[in-house]
Specification:
This protein has 167 residues and is an alpha/beta fold. Strands 3-1-2-4-5-6-7-8 form an 8-stranded mixed beta sheet. The protein is 24% helix and 23% strand. A hairpin with a 4-residue loop joins β7 (152-156) and β8. α2 (81-94) runs parallel beside α4. The protein starts with a strand and ends with a strand. It is globular. The protein contains 4 helices and 8 strands, in the order βββαβαβααβββ.
């Protein structure tokens, strides 16, 4: 399993202070992607249990609760799903109050139709899902947590999905 990087005190990705993790590898390869260095599935660094421990420790470093952001690459593609599952389930076990934000080029409805046990579990533990591919012709730098207007920020709940922050 490979990853691209970690930002332990991220203030740009989501509300509040966050630990942000970038998976390595992406099948979408969107035109003018913000992270093209994450496209190759063979690039990046090897993921180890020490990296997982470092993520968990960073979530409450200096007594400050952080949110967790999972980005890519593509965290929900077949090649990265086990790693994403491992990280998200471990975070919710060890730091259950951590809000989890996930960015994916897939659309929520397609992820639900796929009905993969690991994806289903990840989505059940996710607080916010930012879905849809980046579309360069719809780029809008004024949008919160997304790069193009086709993308959605979805607050995931057990019983329903509330769509928020469309623009």
């Amino acid at each position: 399993m490979r990853y691209s990087g970690i930002i332990k005190n991220d203030i740009a990705s989501a509300p509040g202070l966050c630990t942000t993790f970038f998976t390595q590898g992406c099948p979408h390869k969107c035109l003018n992607c913000h992270n093209p260095e994450t496209w190759s599935f063979t690039g990046g660094k090897e993921f180890t249990t020490d990296v997982l421990d470092d993520i968990i420790q960073s979530l409450n470093a200096q007594g400050i609760q952080r949110n967790f952001c999972l980005m890519g690459g593509e965290p929900l593609c077949d090649e990265n799903i086990f790693l994403s599952y491992l990280i998200v389930t471990t975070i919710k076990q060890k730091s259950p109050n951590t809000k989890i934000y996930i960015w994916t080029g897939y659309v929520y409805e397609d992820l639900v139709k796929k009905s993969n046990a690991k994806i289903d579990k990840i989505l059940s533990l996710t607080d916010y899902l930012i879905d849809g591919p980046y579309v360069d012709s719809l780029r809008d730098v004024t949008l919160e947590m997304k790069g193009s207007s086709n993308q959605r920020v979805l607050q995931l709940n057990i019983d329903n999905v509330k769509k928020i922050w469309y623009n």
